[in-house]
Design goal:
By secondary structure, this protein is of the alpha/beta class. It has 2 domains: 181 residues, D-Maltodextrin-Binding Protein, domain 2; 209 residues, D-Maltodextrin-Binding Protein, domain 2. Helix content is 42%, strand content 16%. It contains 17 helices and 14 strands. The protein is globular. The N terminus is likely disordered.
């Protein structure tokens, strides 16, 4: 009897153990991922409640968590101010605050590819995704043939100008009444800046300039094309120490000496110039399509113009915005991150790319009637240049560059020294990045 009782007890224990394993196998894993993104303004083409990328990401992540079947997912979303990328990304590696998905501008994201933490995403890219987005954007997303960044939307920087100030300064002939982005020859730029300076009071200025941080680097690089400098050579290294680059630097220095730029521009940032423009203290300011709704409250009429060029066709600088996934040593987190991005691209959440300049052909067609406000940017795409070549340590390049522009404005280095130093110091940053670069394996 005692043996029978022991046998029954063993069966009960074994059965319980087996049942426990089965129940555990039926349970979905709990996975928490961190999404980080800078402050990115957007239009309200798709959703009037969404005015920044954070709002879009919050809505999309809530929808994903509700519909996802393979795990119980919690998504933390953190928005950070521009200039705090290292603090929020590389400084957080191997911590609970480590980023799993980064949604940002490519010129920020490209640096992290070479940390060895960013994973290729080719395994989630379908043929439909490939055909829906132009090949040029896939090319910008790749290193050594692997796709490390998922192209979502784009922004395009041009100048905007205060039509009221132009009229008062006697510059009516340069004002367009059409919904276009104009282009002026270099000779016209010089006339416009001179006449604005003659009209404006001492506390107002013809044109923006900000060299107080790396944020202004991309716009100043585009200004360096004014006299025909390509800025980069065929290998993707900076090449400013040439006749054309020196001529552009001399023009910028001349503009500063003639008080065309705000006082102490070497200490100013974008927000300082924005405030001045909105107060009617700047004739020309840099603007992209995402900030068009804000400009409706400016209290004056806007015109739009490309950066100057020798041939008068003008330049705009464009940059892609997209997704990047980081490997934090947890395969389940990586799988969820990939599924989240695939969810965005295979659902109506891709429509939110129309809040900037959509890269998706299908989204552009779907919202064609609502993109009238930014149609001028779409039609202006032929003027676009990029200011990065996806080289390692691009943040180091931007930092070295803006500090040299500070020296240009301070006047403690000659133009020739600045041109030479841009090439040597910025390219040294690239070489350091190449030396330390690690791609994910």
């Amino acid at each position: 009897m005692k043996r029978v009782f022991c046998f029954i007890l063993c069966v009960i224990i074994l059965t319980g153990m087996t049942t426990g394993c089965d129940n555990k196998g039926d349970e979905k894993p709990s996975v928490t991922i961190n999404i980080k993104l800078p402050v990115i303004a957007v239009n309200d083409v798709v959703d009037g409640d969404v005015r920044d990328a954070y709002s879009f990401m919050k809505k999309a992540s809530d929808d994903f968590c509700e519909k996802y079947k393979d795990a119980d997912v919690k998504i933390n979303i953190k928005q950070y101010e521009a200039g705090r990328e290292d603090e929020e990304i590389s400084d957080c590696f191997d911590t609970d605050n480590a980023v799993d998905i980064l949604f940002a501008d490519y010129f920020v994201m490209s640096t992290y590819i070479y940390s060895g933490r960013v994973i290729p995403l080719d395994d989630i890219i379908t043929s439909e995704m490939k055909s829906d987005i132009k090949s040029v954007f896939w090319g910008l997303s790749q290193v050594d043939g692997k796709t490390y960044m998922m192209p979502f939307s784009a922004n395009q920087d041009t100048f905007c100008y205060n039509k009221d100030l132009f009229r008062k300064a006697g510059l009516e002939e340069y004002i367009s009444s059409e919904n276009v982005i104009q282009s002026w020859k270099m000779e016209d730029w010089k006339i416009i800046l001179r006449k604005l300076r003659e009209y404006l009071p001492d506390t107002s200025y013809p044109m923006m300039m900000y060299a107080g941080s790396e944020d202004g680097a991309m716009n100043i690089m585009t200004l360096l094309r004014s006299y025909g400098c390509e800025v980069f050579n065929e290998e993707g290294y900076l090449s400013v120490n040439n006749q054309e680059g020196i001529a552009a630097l001399k023009w910028l220095k001349d503009c500063d000496e003639k008080n065309y730029f705000p006082h102490n521009a070497e200490t100013l940032v974008l927000l300082d110039n924005y405030s001045m423009f909105m107060n009617g203290q700047l004739g020309l300011y840099v603007l992209n399509s995402a900030y068009l709704p804000d400009m409706k409250n400016a209290g004056f009429e806007l015109g739009y113009v490309n950066f100057p060029s020798v041939d008068g066709k003008g330049y705009s600088d464009s940059y892609v915005i997209g997704f990047e996934v980081f490997d934090n040593g947890d395969s389940e987190r990586i799988d969820v991150c990939k599924d989240f991005i695939k969810f965005i691209y295979e659902s109506d959440w891709l429509d939110y790319s129309a809040e900037s300049l959509p890269l998706s052909k299908s989204v552009s067609e779907k919202y064609a009637d609502k993109l009238v406000d930014i149609e001028k940017y779409i039609n202006n795409s032929g003027t676009s240049v990029t200011f990065t070549r996806n080289k390692p340590n691009w943040k180091g390049v931007r930092t070295a560059f803006y500090r040299l522009i500070q020296h240009l404005l301070y006047g403690d280095m000659s133009v020739e020294e600045i041109a030479s130093s841009i090439d040597s110091e910025c390219n040294n940053q690239i070489e350091t990045g190449i030396k330390n670069a690690i791609l994910h394996k």
